[in-house]
Recover the amino acids of this structure.
């Protein structure tokens, strides 16, 4: 996959991820439009990226690229900004997305709240918000 | 087994304490709780504290209280459930004869105090995945869990609101409650939206204050002549840390694990329980915990709380002081800028099968027992709502 990456660096006033340790490959992938997750040789798939496999304990499980699609497990409509820089965005939608590969990811859903429902299909896009990271943002399919 | 006896409880002033820090509030609550127990600081040989904004809170509070060589120290930080968790450790320490009078204390200035504004460089790597979503935590995280519960079980906003309405009825009887006016289900549903499906009245207050419980050994209890209100069962577990997406099943909390253990230790069943005091950071929190503790079947919490079950006169009186949603109890989730979804769960049964004599307690009456009005807020990091519930 290579999902669209929109450059939002100038507009973004919110928190910016800091790639570090096991998360470095994940954030590097986002700049290319790739949503990566860790898939261990034992078969365990995980996000957020960690230095060990939470199933077998192997160190530095390798990354695979997700298809970038999934379903909404649940979501909320935020009327109160939870972070600096979100004041002008309310109301905005944050969801827990179950990727088709298994891992669950918390992410912004770029859509009007009215049409959303649990179980709906979504696809990833990216907002580049710094020179080193783009955040996954899901849109209804 | 030696069960710690709850000999005294007290709070510091609540609501807004701009001239106090967390430690002041914890210490004031401690001294008041000791007075309630009929003992003094000199009797204290153990301190258990969490939630304070200090790196080593047990040491800090011991020093502040000028304790002389306390034999029991505990500062495990597992969020709001820390204090129940401590009770198990206190029980073990008392069984070993290590301590006779232990203060379990908490203090906070979440309402008026400075915010912890740590950058993402200084926090857990997962925060880089969570904070850029802008999720207003903790309300937004619990709201997501609540919506999933609604989806799976048909729970409704009206049913969640029933909890708020019932709790406000209890608050009306508590002169220290921040909000005592009656509210209706409709009031809850129509109050300002915070993080859907939650409105303002689904959310707990954020306030300054401190609370303390004095736990004493059976020998000390006999010496003090206090009724034997014993800690009869305690259990702890953890399901996740802070990010709601790491919760294995968003509609089931750790209480499903800890509840049965605590009941078994206490040797009681649900039928023995006359009163439940359940953390209600949000209406949903109380609902899901009732389910997970087994007061009703999983998924039937909404039906269970409908019709005033937890209200005065109801089948299961719950949060009889008005609780976190309606009175300015200190926010026991505080430990950093971000309070937490139910990252861990500790349960304690506060009824003892053999100790059911209610204590006739003289009012703990702090000097200013007039109600302190806390700025109502749904908690969280960056906004303190000035709006008050109707």
């Amino acid at each position: 996959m290579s999902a669209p990456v929109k450059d939002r660096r100038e507009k973004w006033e919110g928190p910016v991820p800091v790639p570090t340790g096991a998360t470095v490959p994940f954030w590097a992938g986002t700049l290319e439009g790739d949503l990566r997750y860790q898939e261990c040789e034992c078969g365990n798939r995980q996000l957020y990226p960690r230095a060990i496999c939470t199933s077998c304990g192997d160190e530095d499980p390798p990354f695979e690229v997700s298809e970038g699609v999934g379903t909404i497990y649940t979501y909320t409509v935020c009327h109160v900004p939870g972070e600096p820089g979100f004041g002008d965005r309310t109301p905005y939608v944050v969801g827990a997305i179950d990727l088709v590969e298994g891992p669950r990811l918390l992410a912004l859903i770029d859509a009007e709240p009215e049409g959303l429902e649990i179980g709906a299909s979504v696809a990833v896009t990216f907002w580049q918000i710094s020179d080193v990271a783009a955040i996954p943002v899901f849109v209804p399919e | 087994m030696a069960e710690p006896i709850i000999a005294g409880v007290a709070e510091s002033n609540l609501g807004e304490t701009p001239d106090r820090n967390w430690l002041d509030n914890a210490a004031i609550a401690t001294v008041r709780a000791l007075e309630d127990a009929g003992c003094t600081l000199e009797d204290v040989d153990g301190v258990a504290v969490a939630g304070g904004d200090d790196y080593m809170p047990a040491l800090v509070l011991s020093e502040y209280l000028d304790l002389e060589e306390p034999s029991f120290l505990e500062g495990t930080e597992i969020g709001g459930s820390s204090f129940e968790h401590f009770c198990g450790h206190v029980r073990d320490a008392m069984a070993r004869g290590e301590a006779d009078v232990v203060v379990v204390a908490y203090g906070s200035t979440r309402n008026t105090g400075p915010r912890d504004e740590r950058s993402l460089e200084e926090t857990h790597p997962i925060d880089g995945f969570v904070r850029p979503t802008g999720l207003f935590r903790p309300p937004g995280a619990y709201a997501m869990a609540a919506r999933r519960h609604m989806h799976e079980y048909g729970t409704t906003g009206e049913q969640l609101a029933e909890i708020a309405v019932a709790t406000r009825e209890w608050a009306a009887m508590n002169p220290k409650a921040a909000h005592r006016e009656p509210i209706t289900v409709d009031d809850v549903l129509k109050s300002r939206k915070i993080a859907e499906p939650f409105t303002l009245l689904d959310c707990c207050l954020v306030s300054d204050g401190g609370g303390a419980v004095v736990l004493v050994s059976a020998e000390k209890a006999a010496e003090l002549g206090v009724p034997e209100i014993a800690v009869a069962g305690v259990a702890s577990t953890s399901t996740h840390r802070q990010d709601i997406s790491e919760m294995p099943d968003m509609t089931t909390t750790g209480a499903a694990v800890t509840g049965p253990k605590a009941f078994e230790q206490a040797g009681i069943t649900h039928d023995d329980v006359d009163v439940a005091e359940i953390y209600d950071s949000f209406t949903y929190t109380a609902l899901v915990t009732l389910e997970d503790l087994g007061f009703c079947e999983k998924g039937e919490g909404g039906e269970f709380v409908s019709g005033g079950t937890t209200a005065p006169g109801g089948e299961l009186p719950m949060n009889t002081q008005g609780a976190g949603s309606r009175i300015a109890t200190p926010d026991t989730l505080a430990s950093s800028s971000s309070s937490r979804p139910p990252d861990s769960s500790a349960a304690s049964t506060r009824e003892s099968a053999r100790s059911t004599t209610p204590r006739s307690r003289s009012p703990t009456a702090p000097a200013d027992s007039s109600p302190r009005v806390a700025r109502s807020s749904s908690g969280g990091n960056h906004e303190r709502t000035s709006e008050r519930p109707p």
Chain A has a mean pLDDT of 97.
